[in-house]
Write a structure and sequence with these properties.
alpha+beta, three-stranded mixed sheet, 33% helix, single chain, 60s Ribosomal Protein L30, Chain: A, 2 helices, 91 residues
């Protein structure tokens, strides 16, 4: 969700927001997207796959960490369509 607590309606907007939040978390640890070694993307609607994957591919660029996509029945907030958890490592 955004700092003001809002949640966009469209999957692409939610995915961009998730990635923005991830980059902020990584930056606080002096890391970036290239330090992600594993990520799990959770979607509640199979129709959102293409939009979520397009944002994912754009954010990762040429970086390709281990990745899993899962479809689940719901997330903690009913407005959420996507959740991503990740592991990042800096040598």
């Amino acid at each position: 969700m955004a700092p003001d607590g809002s949640v966009p309606d469209q999957i692409e907007d939610q995915a961009r927001l998730v990635w923005s939040n991830m980059k902020a978390i990584l930056a606080e640890a002096a890391m970036d997207i290239g330090d992600i070694v594993q990520l799990n993307m959770l979607l509640i609607d199979r129709h959102d796959r293409d939009g979520a994957m397009a944002v994912r591919d754009d954010e990762l660029g040429l970086h390709r960490p281990a990745s899993t996509l899962m479809y689940i029945s719901g997330l903690a907030n009913p407005a959420w369509k996507i959740e991503i958890d990740f592991i990042a490592v800096r040598e």
